[in-house]
Structures are given as C-alpha cells and as structure tokens.
C-alpha cells in the first residue's frame, strides 16, 4: 500500500528527452514556435468561421470543432513539456498527470471520430449534392459533433480510470514527455494483460473503425469524381476533399504507429518523436493545410485582415 501511494504523494518524473541535453534546448525553441503557430492558426480558423457568414455551413462547423480540439489537445500537453525542457526539474504532480491523462485521451479520441464525421460530410457534398442541405441539416451536424465529443469523454473515463487503478509500486519514472495510457501501463508492477487487451479494443474502435469509414467515404467520392466529365468539376471536387484527406493521413498515420504497432518493434526514442509529431506538429499543420488549399478560407482571411487593418 505504501508503494502504491508513493506516486500519488510524490507524483511522477517525466524522463522525456533528458538523456539528450543538447537536444532539449533545440526542442524547446522549436516546440515553443510550433505551439505559438498552433494557437494563432487554430484561433484564426475559429474566428473566421464565426465571423464570415459565407463559412456558416457544415464543413466549417466541423472545422471549427477540429480547431478547438487541436487548441485544447496541444494545450493539455505542451505547457508542461516546455517547463520540463526548460529546467532540470522533470517532475509532474500526480494530479497534473491525472488531468493530462484524462483530457488528452478524451480530445484525441474525439478527434478520431470527428475526422470520420467530416469525411461523411464530404461524401454527402460530392456524391449527394442535391440532398446535402437536407442530410447535413444544422441539427444533424450538432448531433454528430456531440456524438464525437461524447465518445471521447466515455473512452477516457473508462481507459484512464482503469489505468490509474494499477499499482505502480513506487515506480515514478515515466519514460515519455507526457502521461499517456501505454506508458503508464508499462509502469505497473502487476499483470496488465486485461489493460493491454482493453487498450487494443479501444484502439480498434477509435482508430480502425473510423479510418475504415473514412476510406469507404473516399472510395465512393473517388468513383463519383471519376464520373464527372468536366475537368473543372473534377478539380473542384478534388479541392473540396484534398485538405481533409491530408489531415487524415498525417493524423492517423502517426497515431496508428503509436497505438497499434507492437511496442517491441519500435525504439523508445521512436515512440517519443512520433508522439511529438501528433501532439505538436499535427495541430499546427491542420490550419495551414485547410488555409493554403481552400479558396473560401483564404478569401475570408483577406476580408477579415482588411477590416482589421
């Protein structure tokens, strides 16, 4: 019992990149810049989507949710990471670790489902354009977004709670830069077969199933686009979906590598850098991808900047 309580009293030590001191300084500067760009880019997307009436449609409704998710997700991890990179103290309180675990897992799981919902929106827009206004009614969009958020909250309540019930027997060194389910399970001093099985089932439900639905949606979209005789029409349809597809590939590619690849087949540093990519880089890239490849967003930004200046 004393060993079990040690972690709660003393908290954890996030090892992170402390074995490479020179790299820590570089990472601090790079991550600080990326975090600033994430805050700026995603806040701009939310603001523009709210202020420009031309962007009051399902696509930008879901994009605003995605930007808000990315803001919260990266903010639940990066501030503590910057503190640890910038000082010799690598500790995090037990309460801080618990909050980080629950919040980051909820937001990450929500994003997995939300990207699937966004692919369905693109499927309806391209394959059933005449029924789009009816199928993607604002009430339907609100229900779909609520389902995504609810699924994320549900999975974190189950997974995080089960993980925190494990005894750590005084093990306080987390070989990662934030509190995440797989690394905390490794820290346990008892048999974790049940937790590993539960993690695998959750990974299938929140990674494989949504990704399969996304691939089905884009398979139907590809067939519909190929049937369009006009080259201009094909380009327009492709431009409508390409931004979302790029985000899906980047996000799911890194997450699947972390959660579905056997832990023994990757090094510790590999896991850390992959996690760094989907927690810091991906949230920064999302607004850039949607802005640079979307004429409507660029036009709204120019209009907004013109009014501001």
UniProtKB/TrEMBL annotation:
GO MF entry, a single one: olfactory receptor activity
Protein encoded by which gene: LOC108636461
Domain of life: Eukaryota
Function: Putative odorant or sperm cell receptor.
Domain spans labelled G-protein coupled receptors family 1 profile: 41-290
Pfam families recorded: 7tm_4
Species this protein is from: Capra hircus
Keyword annotations from UniProtKB, A to Z: Cell membrane, G-protein coupled receptor, Membrane, Olfaction, Receptor, Sensory transduction, Transducer, Transmembrane, Transmembrane helix
One GO CC term on file: plasma membrane
TM spans (from-to): 25-48, 60-81, 101-120, 140-158, 200-221, 242-261, 273-292
Subcellular localization: Cell membrane
Membrane topology (UniProt): Multi-pass membrane protein
Protein name: Olfactory receptor
Record-stated family: Belongs to the G-protein coupled receptor 1 family.
Keyword Transmembrane helix in annotation: yes
């Amino acid at each position: 019992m004393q060993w079990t309580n040690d972690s709660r009293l003393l908290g954890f030590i996030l090892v992170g990149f402390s074995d490479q001191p020179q790299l820590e300084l570089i990472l601090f500067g790079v991550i600080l810049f990326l975090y600033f760009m994430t805050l700026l880019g995603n806040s701009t997307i939310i603001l523009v989507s709210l202020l420009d009436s031309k962007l009051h449609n399902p696509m930008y409704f879901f994009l605003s949710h995605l930007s808000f998710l990315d803001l919260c997700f990266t903010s639940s991890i990066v501030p503590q990471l910057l503190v640890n990179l910038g000082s010799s103290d690598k500790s995090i309180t037990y309460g801080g670790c618990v909050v980080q675990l629950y919040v980051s897992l909820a937001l990450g799981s929500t994003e997995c489902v939300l990207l699937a919902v966004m692919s369905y929106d693109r499927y309806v827009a391209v394959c059933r354009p005449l029924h789009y206004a009816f199928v993607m009614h604002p009430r339907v969009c609100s229900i779909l977004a609520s389902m995504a958020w609810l699924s994320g909250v549900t999975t974190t309540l189950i997974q995080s709670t089960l993980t925190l019930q494990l005894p750590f027997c005084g093990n306080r060194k987390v070989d990662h830069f934030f509190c995440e389910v797989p690394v905390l399970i490794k820290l346990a001093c008892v048999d974790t077969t049940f937790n590993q099985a539960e993690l695998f089932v959750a990974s299938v439900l929140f990674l494989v199933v949504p990704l399969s639905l996304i691939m089905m949606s884009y398979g139907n979209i590809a067939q519909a686009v190929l049937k369009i005789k006009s080259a201009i029409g094909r380009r327009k349809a492709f431009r409508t979906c390409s931004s979302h597809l790029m985000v899906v590939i980047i996000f799911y590619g890194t997450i699947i590598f972390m959660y579905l690849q056997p832990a023994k087949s990757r090094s510790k540093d590999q896991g850390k850098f992959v996690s760094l990519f989907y927690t810091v880089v991906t949230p920064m890239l999302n607004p850039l991808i949607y802005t640079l490849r979307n004429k409507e967003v660029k036009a709204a930004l120019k209009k907004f900047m013109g009014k501001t200046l």
